[in-house]
Amino acid sequence: SRQELTEGRIHMEYLDNIGKRAQAAKPDLQHLKSEEKNQILRKSADDLKLHATEILAANEKDMEKGRTNGMSQGLLDRLFLDKSRIEGNWQNGMCQVSELDDPIGEVLGMKKRPNGLLIGQKRVPLGVVGIIYEARPNVTADAFALCFKTGNVVILKGGSDAIHSNTAIVASLRKTLKEEQVPEDALLLIEDTSRETTAQFMKMNRYVDVLIHAAARLIRAVVENSTIPVIETGTGNCHIYVDETADLQMAADIVINAKTQRVAYAMHANPFL
Length: 273
Description:
two-stranded antiparallel sheet; 55% helix; globular; disordered C terminus
């Protein structure tokens, strides 16, 4: 219908704008030195703590919507944020990433050809990384940290259940980037959470170099429909193997603990943990 065609154009114009901004931010980001990236990550962690009040207020909006819509307790726990999660998980996590060795620029091997030409393998950024995930606000901070450390621009597409939380987290991180005179568009959030926009995002191969999905219900759709190279993740069904020499009581305790503590976090794989 004419309305569908119009809406399709609106989705594409919106995504094209995001893609162009991501590509424009790529050169500056890839020229940052290791210590510059590490310092910005540490400041980003501190600033998330400073903006905790705004982030928690936004998260409460998502929680209220989840409760109203009958979201399960396990999923609500996955969505929930408090100061301890921001200050503990996020701050520690981002600081830990800042302390990791920078892989960019590492030469993995070098061979000398008979004509004297040296040919080697060198680690470089992927470019623009697209990430699709569900109602897990912690992924927003984790994904930014890992992509920024490796010199990659990231476009995030979270689920509608966490849109207020994600928007507040991204606002804090982009503010830090601006203060540090780094392109804010090193981090971009697709705020349109419609399925149509998600489907169009999977086809942004003009702008996005690799697509990662951390949304179990979308695994098949992403793999089958994306025109962007995809890093496929699993559903998080982790197996425990018990051999004949094992302490069976210990094995039973491990199984029970793994599958009954923080059930929401055992439901789906998260490549950013």
